[in-house]
């Protein structure tokens, strides 16, 4: 059976670094901008519904706007893929990473000038860009901005390895575990940096994304797409 050659943006290292950014981004927004999630829109939907049930109308927009911003980010990403996926000079995923970096640099610059609501909306757009763009690792579905699906993968691969006697699935379970640990590590780093850097903690995520962009650009020049 021929060896599988995955696109560079589906390699394990890229998935690890992207998930690191995803965990850091959610923790950053929660800690620094009003306990709202950047990517975990399920959490925002739950909090939105609870405030609706309790009649806390002033807080409804606090959670509704990031949800709408996330949807706008998904719409924008699908548009980018549609118009640029056939370009042979660069990967459309690189455009998304550049937009993410620009968006988070804007967050760092505007933190003291914009209200938390608008900062959170901008970060939600960034999270949506990443979520829609990077959805597979080694050909398998995964997500960079939440842990639920990746935890599911661990359980499924373990079942296949232990009960169906497919030992190669044990390796895939280990890779999925590594991705979950990357998400936790990102959140941990955000938590540790926030007391020191405060809202500028977002620059750590910018650095991580720049590294990923550099790896993709290097691979493009080497013909390793």
Describe how the helices and strands are arranged.
Blueprint: H1 12-32, H2 41-53, H3 60-84, H4 92-110, H5 116-133, E1 136-137, E2 140-141, H6 148-163, H7 168-197, H8 202-221
Antiparallel strand pairs: 1-2
Helix pairs in contact: 1-5, 1-7, 1-8, 2-3, 3-4, 3-5, 4-5, 4-8, 6-7
InterPro entries: DUF1275
Pfam families: DUF1275
Keywords: Membrane, Transmembrane, Transmembrane helix
Task: Please give a structural write-up.
- There is one protein chain.
- The protein is mainly alpha-helical and 225 residues long.
- The protein contains eight helices and two strands.
- It has helices at 12-32, 41-53, 60-84, 92-110, 116-133, 148-163, 168-197, 202-221, and strands at residues 136-137, 140-141.
- Strands 1-2 form a two-stranded antiparallel ribbon.
- Helix 1 (12-32) runs antiparallel to helix 5 and helix 1 packs parallel to helix 7 (168-197).
- It is globular.
- The mean pLDDT is 91.
- InterPro entries: DUF1275 (IPR010699).
Give helix % range. Answer: over 70%
Strand order of the largest sheet: 1-2
The helix/strand order is HHHHHEEHHH
Measured distance between first and last alpha carbons: 21 Å
Largest sheet: 2 strands, antiparallel
Strand content: under 5%
Structural class: mainly alpha
- What is the alpha-carbon Rg in Å? 18 Å
Number of helices: 8
Uncertain regions spanning at least 5 consecutive residues:
none
Mean pLDDT: 91
What is the overall silhouette?
globular
Strands, count: 2
Quickly list its features.
single chain; 225 residues; two-stranded antiparallel ribbon
């Amino acid at each position: 059976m021929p060896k599988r050659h995955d696109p560079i943006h589906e390699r394990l290292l890229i998935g690890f670094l992207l998930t690191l950014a995803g965990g850091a981004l959610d923790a950053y927004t929660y800690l620094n901008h009003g306990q709202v999630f950047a990517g975990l829109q399920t959490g925002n939907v739950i909090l939105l519904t609870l405030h609706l049930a309790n009649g806390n109308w002033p807080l409804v927009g606090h959670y509704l706007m990031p949800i709408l911003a996330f949807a706008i980010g998904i719409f924008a990403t699908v548009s980018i893929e549609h118009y640029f996926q056939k370009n042979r000079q660069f990967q459309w995923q690189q455009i998304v990473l550049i937009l993410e970096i620009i968006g988070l640099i804007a967050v760092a610059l505007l933190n003291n000038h914009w209200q938390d609501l608008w900062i959170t909306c901008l970060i939600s757009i960034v999270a949506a860009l990443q979520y829609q763009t990077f959805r597979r690792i080694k050909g398998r579905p995964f997500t960079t901005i939440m842990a639920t699906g990746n935890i599911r993968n661990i359980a499924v691969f373990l079942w296949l390895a232990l009960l169906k006697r497919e030992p190669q699935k044990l390796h895939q379970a280990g890779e999925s575990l590594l991705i979950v640990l990357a998400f936790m590590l990102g959140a941990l780093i955000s938590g540790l940096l926030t007391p020191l850097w405060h809202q500028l903690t977002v620059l750590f995520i910018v650095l991580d994304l720049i590294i990923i962009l550099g790896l993709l650009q290097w691979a493009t020049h080497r013909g390793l797409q």
